[in-house]
Amino acid sequence: MASAYSSTLPQLGTMAKKLDRDIWRVSAGTLEIKFFEPGALVPPLEMFDAVRAGAIDAAFSSPAFWGNKVPALQLFAAVPFGPSAKEFLAWIYFGGGKELFDEIYHANGIHSVFCGLIAPEASGWFRKRIRTVEDLKGLKMRFFGLGAKVMQKMGVVTTQLTSGDIFVAFESGAIDAAEFSMPAIDIKLGLHQMVKNYYFPGWHQPSTLFELMINLKKWEALSVSAKAQIEAVCGDNIRFGLAEGEAGQFKALKELQSKGVAIRRWPGEILEALNKAWVVVAKEEAKSDRDFKRVWKSLSAFRKDYTIWRELSLP
Length: 315
Known about the structure:
Blueprint: E1 2-3, H1 12-26, H2 47-53, E2 58-61, H3 85-94, H4 97-106, E3 110-118, E4 124-126, E5 140-142, H5 146-153, E6 157-159, H6 163-172, E7 177-178, H7 183-189, E8 197-200, E9 208-215, H8 216-221, H9 224-258, E10 262-265, H10 268-288, H11 290-313
Parallel strand pairs: 1-2, 5-6, 5-7, 8-10
Antiparallel strand pairs: 2-9, 3-9, 4-7, 4-8
Helix pairs in contact: 1-9, 5-10, 10-11
């Protein structure tokens, strides 16, 4: 199993390593998924093609990595101004999301299992304080997924970098800002050593799902019990990822503040502008890709109905 994330990264790496360990235990050693560090088998951004072709059996990643190949998959990773973790899972498993996910992946020769979840991310690290929408224009920023297209609408020049390249890009001046993940993960990358303005909330990824991609022929050749074991371990990974993420952020934030990081919230006018830009992006993506339109329609309809419960259930 190739991984998009280093085993040294909290959550992102530990979820992948946990999968490696737990599947061995659950199967009593009859099924093995061996973890390989990023780049050891194939470069992370080539994992989709490698799994599809059967060059590797499996890969741990996020569906958002494959947006340039299959735009609709981005909606199964993280949605700007989108659902919370519990709402996302409700749509996936009981609102038709998984059926669409399987259909799209199977058409590409891959079976993918949801295999991890983290709650809200930070919005990013910036060299300078951002006070107005105008301050965003012209910034060079590492950004991931659909949020990158929103930032482009705001005049930001975005680039997708792996975790190992972000620090170097800051150091060389290639970027002015970067988003990566949540505080407990970002602090591990050492981004606070380069810039000190840390913005919230992570409007672009209110919750993020991860996946175990398996070559479709390899998946179909597995026994019913082996498939059930993989799904059970991945389901537990979702529980683990969400709980670990929620438990670990305040400690990281306290440490970052002690190191001189300014923890900031976006001004309301900037969040409003970002939300409007996202509406435009979503319409453009739906217009240009049939599967994106189908998935977006399904998610939007579910969220509209879910509002009935959300408004009644919360104090």
